[in-house]
């Protein structure tokens, strides 16, 4: 794959903080951060950025896996050769490359690295029909058994050439939640069905149901002709739901399972009037009130008119409630003139949530149901200021303290300000807590200045877990609450390196818990920083956690860089918790250090 071109001048601008700050001062947008998203650069194959960006971060530290999954061989090779990144690979590299059909990447990884792959690689290759990859993996890693998912992925996607290349069907396949014939039927692969039948693999449980849902009439006929009984009421119900009239008619003529009232209800819900008409003319199951209710909700007036004129089906208040939620005044008018069910308080509540002021006005004029406090609360939550003002002026139900809390949580400062100025319900500490959790600094600052409810004692913990550095800096400058636990360790546990660095610069203390937690979570970029800038180190618990949590790149880094860890102990833990490839890796490392 050709290297993505990057203009060298543009790159220097993007990587120069001073130049970028000057440009940014004249343009709107998000503030520049002090680091570069390394994972995104690797996903896109931007090797120039990876080579030269001064502060890459990798919250998901297995970057070789990312590069391999996206087929960037040159980047995989560069990362492998770089001492900082050579250990950032795992079996997921080949697993991911198999999914994308990146055979050259897989061949290079197998020849140059010892990570190996998992059975998922075989399933991924089977799913994509990548025969060359499947054959290579089976030859290179003979100890990995073919999982049942590989057979099902091949059958579902019509890859007979893959099925031919796989070993004879094993118990792992027949023990799967559904049968191979079911998988073939999902996408209408008759040829796969014939392949299975020829080998005596005729067991099926829902094959006809799945074929009907997908509209695969040829598959249905084939299953029926070969007496592969796998049909239920779901077949006609699901076909009706998807608008497959020809399938419904065929099932009616050739099968006896029938359907339920759900068939008419589904067809009405999705606006398939010819299907509704055919079912009611040719079947006896009929429909339920859901037919009218759901058709009204989804705006299918032609279905509503026909059902009203030609059937005795009932409706409920859900019909008008649903129309109100969608803002459909034409439907509301028709229901008012032709039906007697009316609406419930949900109608106005739903309309307020969606900001349909014209519907609120219509409901106020033509109905008496009213609303609940949910109306204003929902309008506040969804930033519907006009609806909020209308309810305040024309209704008496009011709102609750949740209105301001929900608005704060969503960052709707103008709603918070309006509620503060015009309503008396106020708020609780939830408002500041929830705004902080979602990094709405402007809302937090306004609440701090204009409200007295404050926040919870552990709100700084929440901010650190979420990685909101600017908000944390504001908090330390304006409020007294602090982290209730080891702040640097908490930030390390969640992979937030900018916060780790900022807290460290402030003189915050920590313990070996910081490195242990970063190791357990797989945050190698945090481990590197702590290794270079802090002296607390780690304990053997970090090694064990990395193994138990399947973080081989972290395990390798710890063994390579942390001198307080005895390799003999690491080897014992690898034998207890890790794959054989890691055991061999530690043994090789021990041998190299003895030389």
Automatic annotation (TrEMBL):
Mind telling me which PANTHER family this protein's record contains?
Answer: ANKYRIN REPEAT-CONTAINING PROTEIN
- The identity of this protein, by name, is Uncharacterized protein
Source species? Achlya hypogyna (Oomycete)
**Organism ancestry:** Eukaryota, Sar, Stramenopiles, Oomycota, Saprolegniomycetes
């Amino acid at each position: 794959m050709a290297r993505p071109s990057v203009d060298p001048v543009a790159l220097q601008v993007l990587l120069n903080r001073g130049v970028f700050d000057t440009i940014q001062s004249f343009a709107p947008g998000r503030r520049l951060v002090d680091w570069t998203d390394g994972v995104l650069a690797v996903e896109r194959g931007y090797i120039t950025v990876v080579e030269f960006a001064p502060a890459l971060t990798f919250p998901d530290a297995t970057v070789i896996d990312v590069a391999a999954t996206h087929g960037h061989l040159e980047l995989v090779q560069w990362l492998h050769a770089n001492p900082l990144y050579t250990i950032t690979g795992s079996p997921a590299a080949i697993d991911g490359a198999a999914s994308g059909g990146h055979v050259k990447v897989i061949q290079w990884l197998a020849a140059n690295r010892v990570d190996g792959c998992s059975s998922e690689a075989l399933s991924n290759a089977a799913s994509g029909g990548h025969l060359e990859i499947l054959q290579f993996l089976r030859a290179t890693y003979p100890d990995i058994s073919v999982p049942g998912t590989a057979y099902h992925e091949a059958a579902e996607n019509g890859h007979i050439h893959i099925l031919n290349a796989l070993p004879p069907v094993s118990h792992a396949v027949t023990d799967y939640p559904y049968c191979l014939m079911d998988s073939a039927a999902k996408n209408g692969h008759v040829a796969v069905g014939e392949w299975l039948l020829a080998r005596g693999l005729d067991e099926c449980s829902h094959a006809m149901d799945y074929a009907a849902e997908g509209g695969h009439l040829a598959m249905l006929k084939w299953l029926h002709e070969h007496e592969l009984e796998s049909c239920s009421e779901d077949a006609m119900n699901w076909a009706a739901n998807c608008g497959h009239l020809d399938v419904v008619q065929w099932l009616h003529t050739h099968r006896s399972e029938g359907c339920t009232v759900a068939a008419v209800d589904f067809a009405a819900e999705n606006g398939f009037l010819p299907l509704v008409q055919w079912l009611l003319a040719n079947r006896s199951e009929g429909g339920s009130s859901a037919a009218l209710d759901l058709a009204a909700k989804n705006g299918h007036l032609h279905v509503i008119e026909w059902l009203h004129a030609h059937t005795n089906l009932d409706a409920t208040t859900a019909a008008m409630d649903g129309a109100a939620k969608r803002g459909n005044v034409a439907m509301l008018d028709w229901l008012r003139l032709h039906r007697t069910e009316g609406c419930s308080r949900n109608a106005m509540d739903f309309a307020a949530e969606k900001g349909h002021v014209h519907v609120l006005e219509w409901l106020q004029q033509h109905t008496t149901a009213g609303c609940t406090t949910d109306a204003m609360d929902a309008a506040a939550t969804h930033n519907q200021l006009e609806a909020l003002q209308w309810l305040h002026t024309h209704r008496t139900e009011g709102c609750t303290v949740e209105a301001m809390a929900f608005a704060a949580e969503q960052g709707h400062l103008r709603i918070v300000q309006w509620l503060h100025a015009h309503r008396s319900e106020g708020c609780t500490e939830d408002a500041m807590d929830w705004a902080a959790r979602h990094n709405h600094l402007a809302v937090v600052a306004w609440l701090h200045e204009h409200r007295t409810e404050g926040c919870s004692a552990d709100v700084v913990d929440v901010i650190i877990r979420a990685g909101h550095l600017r908000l944390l800096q504001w908090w330390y400058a304006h409020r007294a609450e602090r982290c209730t636990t080891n702040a640097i360790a908490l930030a390390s546990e969640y992979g937030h390196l900018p916060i780790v660095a900022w807290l460290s610069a402030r003189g915050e203390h920590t313990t070996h818990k910081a490195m242990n937690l970063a190791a357990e979570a797989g945050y190698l970029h945090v481990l590197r920083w702590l290794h270079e800038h802090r002296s607390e180190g780690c304990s053997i618990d970090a090694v064990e956690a990395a193994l138990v949590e399947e973080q081989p790149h972290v395990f390798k880094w710890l063994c390579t860089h942390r001198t307080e860890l005895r390799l003999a102990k690491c080897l014992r833990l690898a034998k207890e918790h890790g794959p054989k490839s890691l055991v061999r890796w530690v043994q090789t490392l021990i041998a190299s250090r003895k030389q």
